[in-house]
Amino acid sequence: NSILDFEFHVRRLYESIQGYLAERHQSVEAFPSEQRLREVLVHQLRSIENDINPYLREREKRLTILICAPGNENKWDNDRPFGLIHMHLTELPMLTASGVKVQLMEGATGHGSVKDSAWVEERAKLQIPPEFNEIIFEEGGHISQGMSSNVWLLHASTGVWHTQTENVIKGTVQNEILHMMPQTTSTTPLTQSDLLDPTVVKEVAISSTTRGFLPVLSITDAASGKIVRHWDETPVGSELRRIHKAQLAENGTLIWTMSE
Fold first, then answer.
1. What is the full DSSP assignment across 87-126?
2. CB 206 within 8 A of CB 214
3. Is residue 208 within 8 Å of 152, Cβ to Cβ?
């Protein structure tokens, strides 16, 4: 999974940096290129290979990258073109086998597609109740994203899965599925009214690196506490999940084997 995601992660990280600078009215043009960021990350990943715990070495890993701007945010020098870069490796957990129960809440996490410290702090304020697996958000009448996932809505009449990609944190699994099934996926967002209408939305699912693609079994409105949608089975979502898992099993390669 890691090698499939690496290039996308670099693009998303670079977009976050650009958004971070734009929010602070700093020059984006003066910042190092996306290719330079990729080179720096590949170099640092290879430099820590020998320090990986033997237990972790044989398992699929989740990489967290934190970029801290220099003290003088206007100075991005050649020695540290991206400020300070911190990397953290943990074991990627096994994908959950069952569907999920979600809570529907008004609002959104973070600042659009900028995955910065403000996004992390805002998300940390929310606690998922123990009876649920995820919180999904409605913003401006549209279903935007989950707290740590992307949301998919299956249109009942067209058979197309809709997912929001604008002003949200774009997901790696979301990106994989969009490229894997271009004829049956769409980035046109659907509304909360669509979500609540079984004649419009047939099934719902979420996707993330730690979950893969998982069908939603129930949706509970956070304000009223009432279940607004419920499924005993999700045949289309379950089949897409099977296809995605098969793709990962066939194409997954650890990042350490990457050759330049």
1. EEEEEPPPPP-S-EEEEEEES-SSBTTB-SHHHHHHHHT-
2. yes
3. no
| Torsion sign (Cα): 45, 46, 47, 50 | positive
The single-letter code of the amino acid at 65 is: I
The answer to whether 97 and 242 are in contact (CB under 8 A) is no
Residues 83-109: what's their mean pLDDT? 78
Cβ burial of 213 (10 Å; 0-12, 13-18, 19+) is buried
222 φ/ψ sector (left φ>0, alpha ψ -120 to 50, else beta): alpha
Q: Is 60 exceeded by the pLDDT of residue 145?
A: yes
What values do phi and psi take at 61, rounded to 5? -115, 150
Handedness of CA 246, 211, 182, 201 (dihedral sign): positive
Query: How far apart, in whole angstroms, are the C-alpha atoms of residue 27 and residue 74?
Result: 8
Is the pTM higher than 0.90? The answer reads: no
Half-sphere exposure of residue 127: CA atoms within 13 angstroms, side-chain side: 3
Tokens of 187: 């980035």
Residue-level pLDDT at 23? 74
Written as six digits, the tokens of 253 are 């390669």
